[in-house]
Amino acid sequence: MEFAERMSRLGTESAFDVFAKAKQLEAQGRSIIHLEIGQPDFPTPLPICEAAFRAMKDGYTGYTSAAGLLELRTAIAQQLSISRGIDIDPGTVVVAPGAKPIIFFTVMALVNEGDEVIYPDPGFPIYESVINFVGAKGVPLPLREDVEFRFHLDDLKAAISNRTKLLILNSPQNPTGSLLQADDLAAIAELARHHHFYILSDEIYSRILYEGKHVSIIQFPGMKERTILLDGHSKTYAMTGWRLGYGVFPKPLVEGIVRLMINAHSCTCAFTQIAGIEALNGPQDCVDQMVAEFQRRRNAIVEGLNAIAGIHCLKPAGAFYAFPNVTQLPMKCDALATYLLEEAGISLLSGTAFGRNGDGYLRVSYANSLENIQEGVERIGRAIAKL
């Protein structure tokens, strides 16, 4: 079959490929510790599940408004107004089956062929994939270890041109766990206003934070009119399989985004949306407990990795990923990730899965039990010693 040319420009997430290979080894009887997939290993809190079941019994099993149930959009707007410190109109909130559609539809609606989009590198691979798919030019913005995997302002200024249409931000960040500071965001906001480009601010990990304070660029003067804020339930409430994300858009963009949604998927599952309301309005102690456990795991994995000769790992401020530097080891990071899977039964990702500037690093997800993390670090140490 001959695919359309655009399909050759569409990338993927290699985490799922590595996960599949690891599952094959498990099926052969190998003991595998999974440190590759970015999803909480906690169950969805019971009150959220019960709200979905009640909604099914109450008839929430049909179509809804393409933009989402007004009750959910209102709950989202209220929660964001408090957490971001600005007034959010429910009419600017659009609910989607996951956060990825917000990325895809934003790029589809805003970016023409030949436009330029700046994206973080290393960064979530779907950013670059969608940019390439629409025929735009992706401009990688290097995240530097010497500034805790943030960016140098001069690098951002050099990346901007008269064709820059969109800048993608992600904080806390996948794969590095870095957190943009208020000074970083103030500088970005000034450049966006001066050069008239939009911001897609991916804040899906905003509640999974251990150090510092989450600040959103939408809070800065004049930025509500040029920011698309992306968030969702997947990470915060351990609801990855429920597929529930949302975006806050400048008002002129909402109608176009909704049209794209009608063409793509009609609407988001109704009873999932009711569960989303319960998640936002119900007790939040489940989130606090999960983040506290992630922090314990973070401390253990960073300490363990730094005890291995040839590995250096910064302590991430948020999300649930460590991004150790392995440039001192006698093996490239791609080969090292394969070696650790085959030799030690440790499934993790090469930093190159997240862009050219991920070369020399590994991404290690600590969305696994503390016991497995400790065993995993010991296995890594033994495998590295053999090198």
UniProtKB/TrEMBL annotation:
Alphabetical GO biological process terms: amino acid metabolic process
From what superkingdom does this record's organism come? Bacteria
**InterPro entries recorded for this chain?**
Aminotransferase_I/II_large, AspAT/PAT-like, PyrdxlP-dep_Trfase, PyrdxlP-dep_Trfase_major, PyrdxlP-dep_Trfase_small
What cofactor requirement does the entry state?
pyridoxal 5'-phosphate
MF-aspect GO terms: pyridoxal phosphate binding; transaminase activity
- Keywords, A to Z? Aminotransferase, Pyridoxal phosphate, Transferase
Which Pfam family is one of this chain's hits? Aminotran_1_2
Is Transferase among this UniProt entry's keywords?
Answer: yes
Q: What region holds the Aminotransferase class I/classII large domain?
A: 32-380
What does the similarity note say? Belongs to the class-I pyridoxal-phosphate-dependent aminotransferase family.
Give the protein's recorded name: Aspartate aminotransferase
Q: Source species, please?
A: Stenomitos frigidus ULC18
